[in-house]
Amino acid sequence: MTGRRRPLDGGIGNDTLDGYDGDDSLNGGGGNNVLFGGSGNDTLVAGDGNDSLDGGYDDDSLNGWGGADTLSGGAGNDQIDAGAGNDWASGDDGDDSLNGWDGNDTLFGGTGNDTLIGNVGHDSLIGDFGNDSLYGGNGNDTLVAGDGNDTLLAREGNDSVDGGAGNDSLDGYDGADTLIGGAGSDLLSGGTGADKFVYTAIGDSAVGVNHDTILSFDGVGAVAGDQINLAALDAKSLVAGDQAFTFIGTAAFTHVAGQLHAVATNGGVDSLIQGDVNGDGVADFEILVKGATAAAWVAGDFIL
């Protein structure tokens, strides 16, 4: 069925509805349906069943309702509500808003500045390009922002939160979360639970004003038991193989590669965690940890 500037209703059965040009309203009804919005600002409603919705060009509204649906916004600034079921949705081009609602959903923002909300279920949210906002909701979620200056809030559950490139803000909220700031000057908060702050490259947190900042850290001596994970970093860049760091407390570097220490800053109320990987006695990376005194750090606060 095809239409132009008029509503289309598939009714009962497995239907294919094509809006073609114009601002269309397509309702799949019962069955497993395929809906194409085409050009124009379209409204596509899947109904029950496992449906496929493609908004096409312009600014569209897609609603999956029940079933395991596949929803693609296409070009334009789209609103996508996946509905119940385990859905796959992509905003594609434009500044899009995607909500997974119920089920274990996979949401892709695509290009543009997108907002992705997992809501209920164990969801995967991938922001891709642009300055994106990702909100996990309930469940054990995976949030990956990609390029851009992004905001990631995992909320309840044991979540994996990856800011990617850019100056990002990451908040694990409840649960035992894994936070990866990635490249850029990032702001990280684990919230409650035993959280891991993971660094995979020396350049993830630069020395100086562009370092990462960890807002909440409760180490091995606290109930939460947070840790900074540096296991992926080669502590001795001039030595073959993958070497581990040696934590030397608050002592100064002694021109030995692989040393890690804590330095008091901001009047002693905060700490800089610094590492020397080439043995020149100068920090090659540093992480600012708010509210943690330098003397309180122990080797168990790190995965070296």
TrEMBL record:
Its main location: secreted. Gene3D superfamilies: Serralysin-like metalloprotease, C-terminal. Residues 1-25, 68-102 are annotated as: Disordered. GO terms for cellular component: extracellular region. One of its GO terms (molecular function) is calcium ion binding. Keywords: Secreted. It is found in: Secreted. This is Calcium-binding protein. It comes from Defluviicoccus vanus.
